[in-house]
Amino acid sequence: MRRQLHATPFLSLAVFLLLLMHGAGGCLAAAHRRALDEGMWGGVRPSATAVLRELPRKGQGATQAYTVAEAEEGKRDWVPIRIAVSTEDLTDPSKHCTKEKEKKPDFKGQESECTKTDILTPEMTKTLVGEILPVAVKLHAERLLVQRAKSPLVVPSFEAGHEVCQYFTVPEAHHKAGVKDADMVLYVASR
C-alpha cells in the first residue's frame, strides 16, 4: 500500500527552514572572519552597490519593486554569496525524530518527546534536500552580496555561548581545512 504525502508537514518544514535562515544569523558561518563578532566591526558595516529586485507585493507597480544600494568608493568588488549546505544532522537518526514518543534533542540542550508531525521520513528528507533547500539557497544567493575571501571558509567552534548553534553537527574538516568555494555554511537539521 502506498502512503500519500500530505503538504502540511512539508509546509511546516519549509516555514521552519525559512525562519531558521532568516533568524539564525549568529549560527551561520560567514566568510568575513569578523562577521560572527559584531564588536570588531565597531558598529560600521561595509556597504555594496546592488540593484535588488524585491518580491512583488499585491497592488505595487514595477517601479516600486526595486531597491538600490550605493557602494563606498573602492568597495565595488562585491559578488553574489556562495552558500554551502550541510545536512549531516538529517542523516543521523540520533539527531531527528524517527518514530512517535521517542526522545530526541531539541536544539535547546534538552530532549523532548517526538510527535507524529516531528517524524522526518525519507520522502521529507528527499523533498527538503532536493527541492526546498536548493530554491532557498538560490533565492538568498541572488540577493546577498559579499566580498569573497581568498581562502576556504573555516567555521569557528560553536560553544555554549552560541545557544542553538552548538547543537548542530559541524564536520571536523569545516573547523580545520575549511569549506572551499563557500562564503557561508547553512547547517540543516530537523526536530
From TrEMBL:
Keywords noted in UniProt: Cell adhesion, Disulfide bond, Glycoprotein, Hydrolase, Membrane, Metal-binding, Metalloprotease, Protease, Signal, Zinc, Zymogen
GO MF terms, alphabetically ordered: metal ion binding; metalloendopeptidase activity
SUPFAM superfamilies in UniProt: Metalloproteases ('zincins'), catalytic domain
Top-level taxon in the UniProt lineage: Eukaryota
GO cellular component: cytoplasm; membrane
PROSITE patterns xrefs: PROKAR_LIPOPROTEIN
Keyword field contains Protease: yes
InterPro entries assigned: Peptidase_M8
Compartments (UniProt record): Membrane
Signal peptide residues on this chain, from the entry's feature table: 1-29
EC number assigned by the record: 3.4.24.-
Cofactor note: Binds 1 zinc ion per subunit.
Keyword Glycoprotein carried by entry: yes
Reactions this protein catalyses: Preference for hydrophobic residues at P1 and P1' and basic residues at P2' and P3'. A model nonapeptide is cleaved at -Ala-Tyr-|-Leu-Lys-Lys-
CC cofactor: Zn(2+)
Broad class of where this protein is predominantly found: membrane
Family annotation (Gene3D superfamilies): 3.10.170.20
A GO biological-process term: cell adhesion
Similarity comment: Belongs to the peptidase M8 family.
Identification of the protein by name: Leishmanolysin-like peptidase
Organism: Trypanosoma rangeli SC58
Source taxonomy: Eukaryota, Discoba, Euglenozoa, Kinetoplastea, Metakinetoplastina
